[in-house]
Design goal:
The chain is of the alpha/beta class. The chain has 2 domains: about 200 residues, Response regulator (Rossmann fold, 3-Layer(aba) Sandwich); about 120 residues, Response regulator (Rossmann fold, 3-Layer(aba) Sandwich). The protein has a 7-stranded mixed β-sheet, sandwiched between helices. A 5-stranded parallel β-sheet has the order 2-1-3-4-5. The chain has a two-stranded antiparallel sheet with strand order 11-12. Strand 11 and strand 12 form a beta hairpin.
Length: about 375
């Protein structure tokens, strides 16, 4: 005999009550899944992962979103465009409602077609290449573009430092070409002169011949490096060995260069975030991060922006729910049809392209193994 046909002691059938319980369990909403894509195995991406876990922990401790817990679905893209495409496909199949990522411009541009075809919201915390602007209606970013960072650096060199001639070395990829062209255009517009513009490839580029020419010519007052930290360290080693003492400067991809010690002293770096931002939201974020991850380095820009994006998504989903299309449209209205979002990185307000043109750019100088803000706060 089927147990569901048994009667209670009062004689009433148990079947309707059991069925109602089963239906309720089947309809109970599960967690809201949010994707996280980035190079968690490197020093730039690891803080992003930590900040995301901190934000989700805080969100879930306060009731989640509409009473549902948030679940992070994390995938390491290793900073590789091919891996980023695979990760995007996996996250779409995993049923996430939005994705935070990728970190680098190349991986974001590679994965964007997958997210846009799936109509899945993608918000990069740190991809700055100009081409990200046109990556698709479902692709957003919360950092200043290279147009903003290159222009800010050129303005700083011309106005604050009063320098009129320089040399450009740049990594021949989307990021390097983007920030190089915007810096060069703005510096030239301000009457500056670029003595030479040279591309390179690889983590330890062969920049010796370029720097030999710079030393012989002896007219450049600075070197602009449109590339990453490892390449900057190599270029600085070569330059200092040849007695070249002019200042180096570059964008946010030089993050962590201060750890190179005396070699990096005096280098100027642009960024959109410093953990020393003296705002209530950022002070609390930095304190919470330090409590959860004692002994770790302070959060970087991708970490702070990822933290902001999760709370921005929480606020948006509390208003409109988790439908992918409605969520995308509501995010697109932040700073236009709805108020800007205030976070640890400052004000997030999107334009019609999914960019944040009002985000500040800070210029920092490496002094004593730390980056000290000298302009933009």
């Amino acid at each position: 005999m089927n147990r569901l046909l048994h009667r209670s002691r009062s004689g009433a059938p148990l079947l309707p009550a059991v069925l109602a319980l089963l239906v309720a369990c089947a309809q109970a909403p599960g967690p809201i899944r949010i994707g996280l894509a980035g190079p968690f195995s490197d020093s730039v991406g690891a803080p992003m992962r930590r900040a995301a876990m901190l934000a989700v922990e805080q969100i879930n401790l306060t009731g989640g979103i509409r009473g549902r817990p948030v679940e992070l679905v994390m995938r390491d893209d290793y900073g590789d465009p091919d891996s980023a495409v695979s990760v995007a496909t996996e996250l779409d199949a995993a049923g996430v409602v939005a994705v935070i990522g990728d970190v680098y411009s190349g991986t974001t541009l590679a994965s964007a077609p997958v997210y846009n075809a799936a109509r899945l919201l993608q918000i990069s915390p740190s991809s700055s290449a100009p081409l990200v602007t046109d990556a698709g209606d479902f692709t957003f970013r919360t950092c200043p573009s290279d147009l903003q960072q290159g222009e800010a650096l050129a303005r700083f060199v011309a106005e604050r430092l009063g320098l009129t001639r320089g040399t450009i070395l740049y990594l021949n990829d989307e990021y390097g070409r983007g920030i190089r062209s915007t810096f060069s255009r703005e510096f030239s517009r301000r009457g500056g002169r670029i003595d030479e513009t040279d591309p390179y490839l690889g983590d330890t580029p062969a920049v010796g011949p370029y720097l030999e020419r710079l030393a012989r010519r002896n007219t450049s007052e600075f070197v602009f490096l449109g590339g990453n930290r490892s390449e900057a360290e190599e270029a600085l080693r070569v330059a200092r060995a040849r007695g070249i003492k002019v200042p180096f400067l570059g964008g946010y991809a030089l993050e962590g260069l201060e750890k190179a010690g005396p070699l990096a002293e005096g280098t100027y770096i642009s960024n959109a975030y410093l953990p020393s931002f003296d705002t209530p939201i950022n002070r609390e974020f930095v304190r919470a991060y330090a409590r959860k991850y004692p002994g770790s380095t302070a959060p970087n820009q991708p970490a702070a922006a990822t933290y902001d994006i999760l709370f921005m998504l929480k606020a948006t989903m509390n208003r409109v729910g988790t439908d992918r299309g409605k969520l995308r449209d509501a995010v697109a209205e932040i700073g236009r049809g709805s108020p800007p979002f205030e976070g640890a990185t400052g004000e997030i307000a999107f334009d019609e392209h999914g960019d944040v043109p009002r985000q500040r750019v800070i210029i920092g100088r490496i002094e004593g193994g730390r980056v000290r803000a000298v302009e933009g706060l």
